[in-house]
Amino acid sequence: MSDPYMQGPPQPQYAGPPQQPARARGGNRGTVVGLIVIGVIVALIAVAGYFARQSDPDTATVGDCIARGTGDSVRVVECTSPDSAYKVVGKVEDKTQAEFSASSRSICRPFPGVETAFWKGETGGDGYVLCLAPAR
Question: Keywords in UniProt for this one (predicted)?
Answer without folding.
Answer: Membrane, Transmembrane, Transmembrane helix
